[in-house]
Amino acid sequence: MIGQLEMNHGAMLARLCRSAPRGRGIKLSAAGRSGYILDEKVGLYVKYSTKRMSPWTFNFSNVHQAEIAELATQLAEVFIGLVCGTDGIVCLTHEEFRRVLDDDVRPSEWVRATRRRDEQYSVTGSDSVSIIKIADAEYPAKIYEALSRAQEA
Question: What is the reported pTM?
Fold first, then answer.
């Protein structure tokens, strides 16, 4: 049986793979079930909401944040992908993620994405002092730009 986790991660990974140049490698992170490693250089951590409409709230336990931190220590760049039901995908850099959830990890924190029709996502979190604007179209471009930078280094 295919679980809801695989279905929701599949939406994000399918879009990434569909637009991938040949030869790109994607594998599951050893740290947990929501992290992926791309070309041994870039990390992607996926959260999803099955809610149909805005706002979408994503809970990040200290275990989730530890997995993201582990990816960040191992890889050149890490991204956090938020699958907002069937509406679209928010792709945060690790730096953007830390602007909405700081390094002071509590047992459970949250990130919220909202969007009105034909607008960018507004992203905030339990630790944020500002709102980050992210376009749906930034994914998967952010990932491939990071992979290009990692290959050049």
Answer: 0.86
For residue 35, the SS3 value is strand
Q: What are the DSSP calls for 36-101, one per residue?
A: EEETTTEEEEEEEE--SSS-EEEEEEHHHHHHHHHHHHHSSEEEEEEEETTTEEEEEEHHHHHHHS
Share of the chain residues as helix, strand and coil, in percent rounded to the nearest 5: 35, 35, 35
pLDDT in tens, 15-38: 776 566 655 677 777 767 788 888
Q: What is the pLDDT of residue 1?
A: 41
Phi, psi (rounded to 5 degrees) for 59: -90, 135
* 62, amino acid identity: N
Tokens representing 6 are 């695989």
**Does position 89 have pLDDT exceeding 70, yes or no?**
yes
CA distances from 82 to 27, 93, 108, 112, 143 (A): 18, 11, 17, 9, 14
Q: Which helix H or strand E contains 26, and what residues bound it?
A: strand 26-28
